Amino acid sequence: MTSYALLSLLVIDSENQDGLTGYELKQRADFTLRFYWVSPAMSQIYTELERLTSHACVSVDEDVDGRRTTRRFRITPAGREALDTWLRDPTDDFPVLKHPVALRLMLGAMMGTDAVRDMLDRYEQALSERRQELEAVRAMLGDRESVAYAARVAEWGLTFFDAEATAIDRTRDSL
Amino acid sequence: MTSYALLSLLVIDSENQDGLTGYELKQRADFTLRFYWVSPAMSQIYTELERLTSHACVSVDEDVDGRRTTRRFRITPAGREALDTWLRDPTDDFPVLKHPVALRLMLGAMMGTDAVRDMLDRYEQALSERRQELEAVRAMLGDRESVAYAARVAEWGLTFFDAEATAIDRTRDSL
DNA sequence: AGCGTACTGTTCCTAATCGGAATATCGGAG
DNA sequence: CTCCGATATTCCGATTAGGAACAGTACGCT
User: Fold this and answer.
1) What does A14-70 look like in DSSP terms, one character per residue?
2) pLDDT by residue for chain A (175 residues), tens digit each?
3) Which of A75, A106, A128, A162 to mutate: most B Cβ within 10 Å?
4) CB of A42 lies under 7 Å from some atom of strand D
5) What are the extents of the domains in chain A?
6) CB of B2 under 7 A from strand C?
7) Which of A75, A120, A172, B82 has the greatest number of CB atoms lying within 10 Å of its CB?
8) Is the CATH number 1.10.10.10 carried by domain A2-88?
């Protein structure tokens, strides 16, 4: 799955002819991918790139910058095709949510009402920070047609964050 | 993290004096834990139980049932304490969402509007099935005080599902 | 010029998690 | 008594997580 996520980052960047380094891919992942997926570990990015290269889904350019050589990766036509096949595969699986707050809330009786309230407050705070970050991404995308789908994904994320805020309020009211 | 999830299942079941087998834990996880976490693989359940046993957080009863011996696991006071310490730890991390639909939506321009619509329809369908399952769990919990927190977690999940439905609608309207 | 330091870029290591297949026993329907 | 589904555990390989370690680069500062 992660390989498709990386290919998608490479496609999105592909107007830029230079390609991306593993390091840059990590940065892009940290910037947007993390809102609806996870930002893969460094280690995984490089191993996936290795694999994608061996499948000819990405091509590598070795840049010699003085004393070190860095590698820039670009998606190949074969990579695009693999991505396209995956996009058309109708067996999309269901989203996975790992929610530490819910996990703890389950044991609210053991925590006590005050500790639950504190936890909710902390989560509310963290949530509003994330929301602002995503809002900034959304604002940056504007209404340019070329990034319309990215904007839709950002909107989706904002809807999710708002629902979380609602859930916090409802839970607090029920205590 | 998974070990705490298992401990929480054992705590919740602990009115029942018999304890649970690994298999039963898997069933409980499939039933509720999957809505706000993941249902761990068999392999992981047994390895975690092994580890928890070695840390004296769970105790094991070997039941000899005819030709085979099965093991029932119960949480120990030390296990409760470990769980309690974790519950009071204020460093709860942020929820992680892995959303395949959003990942594909990002490349909507490559999919084409029709394929995007189809994907949204399929997700809407899958979502309503999940919602019904969770609704059934919620109904089963009723308003008994002993499961009030589980009910709150279920409500939280329903709020999430409703937000997903909203996001689907908004995305569809924007196409 | 030399120094410090933050950033860029890659590799490496370990642990945790995933996903089921394989195995084997049990319990009940017919 | 036989078959089949449920119970129970083990095993395997692959993927994912999370950073530390290492090395070069860019840039401001004195």
Assistant:
1) TTSTT-B-HHHHHHHHHHTGGGTS----HHHHHHHHHHHHHTTSEEEEEEEETTEEE
2) 999 999 999 999 988 888 999 999 999 999 999 999 999 999 999 999 999 999 999 999 998 877 888 999 999 999 999 999 999 988 878 999 999 999 999 999 999 999 999 999 999 999 999 999 999 999 999 999 999 999 999 999 999 999 999 999 999 999 9
3) A106
4) yes
5) 2-88, 100-174
6) yes
7) A75
8) yes
